[in-house]
Amino acid sequence: MMTKTPRSYVIGNPVKHSRSPQIHQYWLKHYGLNGSYGLAKLAPDQLAAFIESLRHADNAGANVTLPYKSDVIEFLDDIDEDARSVGAVNTIYKQGEKLLGTNTDIYGFLTHLSLSAPDWQAHTKTAMIIGAGGAARAILSAMKTSGVGNIYIANRTISRAKDLADKIYPSAQPIEMSKVQDILSSTDLIINTTSLGMIGQPPLELDLSVLPKHATVVDIVYTPLKTRLLLEAENHGLIAVDGLGMLLHQAVRGFELWFGTRPEVTPQLRQLVEKSLEVGA
Questions:
Q1: How far, in Å, CA of 241 to CA of 226, rounded?
Q2: 238 and 111 in a common domain
Q3: Most exposed residue of 36, 147, 183, 236, measured as fewest CB within 10 angstroms of its CB?
Q4: Catalytic residue (one of 4, 16, 29, 69)
Q5: Nearest Cα to 222, choosing from 247, 189, 202, 239?
Q6: 30: region left, alpha or beta (phi > 0 left; psi from -120 to 50 alpha)
Q7: 69 given a catalytic annotation
């Protein structure tokens, strides 16, 4: 008798760079589960048909990466509050006959932040988000969920920052990048959601010496694992939180929905992904 093998994927364009297969394949092997996880590079005209194919009994669901996190919504039966808040889906799963969408970035970000800086909420009255793209939407939703009252959104195009605030957290204050340095002395938590600092990109240039001594600095970039921003934060004795933990923890919920086991983010898994980042695998 043949046993059904639940299949899941990461869909996007490109997808070759994704670490999701490495993460989920590690968990499948670690927990001795029957299942598979693969890559699906899709052209825009292939998206609808692929999403529909997820309804097949052998398919468990999919992760969604750029540029389709918003595009997939119209092909799903429903999305949950997290996906609705962010305006994007990064995880598709099945419930009975329905295809549903969620966004696990809020959970992934908050879980990693709380593990890395356990007292961050007690110390954070003011947060600064750098950038107003897709990642910033999830981070702003996370800050709203956590009850942070005073939030700045800094972006080169201030209209995008204003649009982000209007859609998710109207009390957040859009500011120009040129104003960031002036506000840092009263900022308890700063989060870079842009590609600045990534390999091949210019660094995010900020003087962190003016931050309060209890401040936490987060960079969601994880190539390199320690950006110049995080290295400077460490040099000033601040708590520095990298982007890899968010990637690892956001994967937990999807795996549980697809394969029925809630996995653990272990040091062994982190080391495995870190090593692949070092060699560019």
A1: 9
A2: yes
A3: 147
A4: 69
A5: 247
A6: alpha
A7: yes
Answer yes or no: do 269 and 193 share one domain.
Answer: no
| Same domain assignment for residues 113 and 236 | yes
CA distance 173 to 280: 38
Share of the chain above pLDDT 90, in %: 94
One-letter amino acid identity for 1? M
| Separation of alpha carbons 8 and 61, rounded Å | 5
Tens digit of pLDDT for each residue in 146-194? 999 999 999 999 999 999 999 999 999 999 999 999 999 999 999 999 9
Q: Tell me the per-residue pLDDT of 37-56, one tens digit each, with 9 for 90 and over.
A: 999 999 999 999 999 999 99
Q: Are 40 and 50 in contact (CB under 8 A)?
A: yes
Closest CA relative to residue 231, chosen from 205, 212, 210, 213: 205
CATH of residue 95's domain is 3.40.50.10860
Co-location of 171 and 230 in the same domain = yes
